[in-house]
Amino acid sequence: MKVTIHQPDLLPYSGFWFKMATCDTFILSVHDQFQKHGYQRRVKMRDAWCSHQLVGKPALVPINSIEVAEGWQQRIADVVRGRYAGSKFFSTRGAELVDRILACEGRMLDEVNISMIEAVRDMLGIETPLVVTDPPTHAATERLIEQVQMVGGSAYLAGQGGKAYMGDDPEARFAEEGLELLWSDHQHSTGDSIVSVLMDEDDPMEIVLRRVG
User: Fold this and answer.
1) For residue 156, what are the β-bridge partners?
2) pLDDT along the chain (213 residues), means of 10
3) SS (H, E, C) the chain
């Protein structure tokens, strides 16, 4: 079983969905440390930031311990309307997405983002199950191995960014645990949110599944 892991980001870019669509299980790493300027609380839409308003000034705490200010559904929906009103598919997919966002629930940052991730997953037609594991106890590569083992996986699909923190020869470390380490070959098309793909592209999944070469 091929597993991938990613933090529950705010309406993330297409590479997030590539990993989801090409794996058997998608682990949402809600126990990771919140990054003040990370993608859990903000994402670019039309090359400008769309951000959550958070309660307080959280730092050095897990993602699932952070509260989002009340009214987040309306704020995100208003940004989507404002940025994409003239887009090719706003009258169809845009209207649906806005309705789905307004119907989302949640108060904590992980809950809020996961609710929107589930909405977009349905719109894209991806059926990969989303899983939240028990809090892992290790860090870096060992943390990934631990989580894959928690769900009974046999292989891990890593994003290209993982090469920056997984150390030397991570393939060997995974192999020691009987696991295969694979690297995403998603073709990066835009750093914008998946919302841009939904609003602009005839076939959003063709963009999501596009591979290098």
Assistant:
1) 3, 181
2) 98 98 98 95 97 95 98 98 98 98 98 98 98 96 97 96 84 97 95 97 98 91
3) CEEEEECCCCCCCHHHHHHHHCCCEEEECCCCECCCCCCCCEEEECCEEEECCECCCCCCCEHHHCEECCCHHHHHHHHHHHHHCCCCCHHHHHHHHHHHHHHCCCCEHHHHHHHHHHHHHHHHCCCCCEECCCCCCCCHHHHHHHHHHHCCCCEEEECHHHHHCCCCCHHHHHHHCCCEEEECCECCCCCCCHHHHHHHCCCHHHHHCCECC
Q: Cα–Cα distance between 193 and 189 in angstroms, integer?
A: 11
Task: Report the Cα 78 to chain-centroid distance in Å.
Answer: 21
First to last CA, the chain: 25
pTM of the model: 0.96
The alpha carbon of 144 is separated from its chain's Cα centroid by a whole number of angstroms, namely: 16
Say how far apart CA 189 and CA 54 lie, in whole Å. Answer: 30
> Who contacts 143 (Cβ-Cβ below 8 Å, separation ≥6)?
136
Structure tokens at 155: 């292989």
Q: How far is CA 84 from the centre of its chain?
A: 21
